[in-house]
Every structure is written in C-alpha cells, then in structure tokens.
Amino acid sequence: MRGAFIMAESSNNWRESLKSEDSFRDFITRYFKEHSQLTGMYDIPSYYEHYTVRLDSKEGIVITLETGVTPTGSGSVAPLPFKQKESMSIEDFRKLILHKKFADSNMSLADVFQTVAGVPSSDEQNKS
Fold it and tell me: Is residue 127 part of a domain?
C-alpha cells in the first residue's frame, strides 16, 4: 500500500482524486499519515512568510502562516511576527482547488498548499 501511495503522489495523482469527495478525503488522509505536516517558506532580505499545513481530526486542514519583517541595519528591532491560523474541511479545500485556476498544470500538492496559504512563489519573487 505504501509503495502505491508514493507512486501515486509522485505522478500528481492528487489531481485525479479531486474528481470525488471520498477519493480526495482518502488521498489527503493518507498524505498526512505519511508526512504529518507540510512546511514551506518565502524569504527575501526584508520580509518572510513561513507556513505549516497539517490535518487535525476535529479542525480538518489547518494552515498556520507566520509573517514577519527582517530587521535591517544595526540596532533596529523588528516587530513581532504575525501568526495566522485558518482551518477548513477537506471538502472545502477540494472545492477551493476545483474553483481555483492554477496556471501550471504540473503544480505539486505542496505548490497548491503554498498558494492557498497566500505565500508568493519564487517565480513571483524573481519578477520583482
């Protein structure tokens, strides 16, 4: 079973699971049993965003986003980071993905979580 899941994950089978509420719930449940949480970040010299996604049996998918300003110069003090937490059901997350038009059809599940968390991609950073 584990080998089948890894193979399905590597071939972006999560997109196929979107077709059914039950299939997507099974996929997400297996994903978080294997990975426990997903983390990512966006850092530029003056600003950062770090996010963590986990599955909770009561709250559903929980996305925690921490943003902050990196201090610049000597003696400067950065404000405390801002932490935001959002919870949604697996089905609400599936519907969000279905209604969101992703530009790149090769996006991984981690890319989707990053987009949902509101963290800019490295491509967006390179455009500035």
Answer: no
Range 63-89 average pLDDT? 81
Whether 64 shows a pLDDT value over 80: the answer reads yes
Compute CA distances 66 → 12, 26, 55, 57, 81, whole Å.
Answer: 28, 28, 18, 23, 6
The number of folded domains in the chain is 1
Structure tokens given for 40: 């990512």
In a domain, 55, yes or no: yes
Q: Which residues have C-beta within 8 Å of that of residue 17, sequence separation ≥ 6?
A: 23, 24, 26, 27
Which helix (H) or strand (E) segment holds residue 89: the answer is none
CA 16 to chain centre: 18
What is the CATH number for 66?
Answer: 3.10.450
What range defines the domain where residue 41 resides? 37-115
d(CA 89, CA 72): 40
pLDDT at 6 over 50: no
pTM more than 0.90: no
Q: Residue 3 falls within a domain, yes or no?
A: no
CA dist., res. 112 & res. 99, Å (int): 12
